[in-house]
Amino acid sequence: MTSNTRSRDVTALWRVGAFSHQRVSATADYLWDNRERKPARLCVFQYTVEGVLRYRDRDGDHEVPPGHAVLFTFGEPSRYWLPPGPRASYVCDWINLQGAGLAEHWAHLRRRYGSVIPVGADVVNELHRLMTAADPAAGRDAMQIAAAVHRFVMHLFSALTRDLAARQTPVERAIESLMTEPLHPGSLTALARSFACSREHFCRAFVRRIGRPPGDWQTEQRVQAAVHLLRSTALTLGEVAAQSGFSSIQTLSRQVRRVTGRSPRAVRGN
To answer: Under a CB-based contact definition with an 8 Å cutoff, are residues 188 and 197 in contact?
Structure first.
């Protein structure tokens, strides 16, 4: 392996760009516009300890009070600031993360839970553990830091999923179940019943939240999975059908043809 290849391999690892425990005085100017910040797609987790941060994205203006964090990336059309006029000092912990595929994980987190999230003590502890691991004085190598970043991001996923489930109604939990496992076999009626709600109530709630009927959305996810398997594996059509959630080869063929205009064999031939 050449030195250039080794360098690219290290760059691909999940890593910490920078981090800080920061205090901004009550009189300081504090405004950051993320559109021109580089490197693009660098992921930021900023946790408010004291004071209130203002954050703006395509969805509007948001407050980030104590006990909450904001997630964003460099290069996106968002900004954050402290309001002018009399105010208390602002104290935060922030960390910048990057590496191959991390921005996609960050985008998924934000789509599912929002850019401003409540943060429990367990997540704060994991954040501080990551900051300690990333401190050069700790002497950790790139692989150890990558593992620490992965642990933090996965813990964040787990904590947000747990906290969301605790606040959700049965039909909201049914929606989350479908969106988390769209390839799981079984009918929408059975899914709704497993969360003690009717199929009709579930479908209405899904359309309000997602904007599409659940059957249409699920079929699209399954066809996407099937097309990926057809193009990237040598699985039989029966195996592709089973792994993408279709009940039979006939159903797989019908839905793939309906969405793509081609048979599964033609899709595989491309």
So the answer is: no
